[in-house]
Amino acid sequence: MLPMTATQSLPLFPLHSTLLPGASLGLRVFEARYLDLVRECGRKGGTFGVCLILEGEEVGTPATPAAWGVEALVEDFDVGADGVLVLRLRGGRRFHVRQTRVRDNGLVVAEVEWRERDSDDELQPEHALLGILLERILEQAGGEYASAGPAQFDQAAWVGWRLAELLPLREQQRVMLLHEDDPHRRLERLLEWIPGFDIPQEQDL
Q1: What whole-number distance in Å separates Cα of residue 184 and Cα of residue 187?
Q2: Per the CB 3.0–4.6 Å rule, which of 30, 68, 157, 204 could disulfide with 183?
Q3: Residue 200 predicted with pLDDT over 50
Q4: Which tens digit of pLDDT belongs to each residue from 142-193?
């Protein structure tokens, strides 16, 4: 268990999908509260967090976010043909939400505790099959990870997050993986879920 650390204020962008460390995500931004958020991050060099929505919708009344999320780093932006701002995000650090408040404009702001970055541990022998499975998936799917080198397929954290991103898991399962500070334990969970993708009963989403 990691020691408690000081919390930090982080604006949230609750979504019906889960951003994972190292994963990319396209996001259309059109509500005033989120346009203000993007401008504020641009001026101050700040970031925001993405959390899965537990109750509510992505637009309108502020939604209830999960207690675990990932920092969103803006890699690129554009304006679509319809005039809507489009962001390309990359998942950064994991965080645990300690409490939230809602600004007058409807933006949810959380006090978050950052979790430690993943170690560079290599795959353990009992998880070697997961590295092979990921290679097979990428051979068929291609995409941005198609050029990954052998060293990456030996990294426990990278293999776990990429499988969590590419396998047909439910969003609640992805959030459960965000709980885990140990990359080997994340791989154990994936092994448990692969046969039927059943969701274990967990609390504190």
Answers
A1: 5
A2: 157
A3: no
A4: 888 888 888 999 999 999 999 999 999 999 999 999 999 999 999 999 999 9
3-state secondary structure of 30: coil
Across-strand partners of 14? 51
What are the C-alpha distances in Å from 68 to residues 79, 137, 170?
A: 30, 27, 15
The amino acid at 67: A
Closest CA to 76 of 40, 143, 26, 15: 26
What pLDDT is attached to residue 141? 84
Quick one: pLDDT at residue 204?
60
Residue 164 in tokens: 């969590």
What type of residue sits at position 197? F
Q: How far is the CA of 97 from the CAs of 16, 34, 58, 70, 131, in angstroms?
A: 17, 19, 18, 10, 31
End-to-end CA distance of the chain: 18
Q: How many CB atoms lie within 10 A of CB 48?
A: 22
Q: At residue 15, what is the residue type?
A: L
Residues 100, 108 contacting (CB under 8 angstroms): yes
Q: What are the helix and strand counts (H, E) for the chain?
A: 5, 6
Amino acid in position 107: L
Task: Supply 40's token pair.
Answer: 């504020």
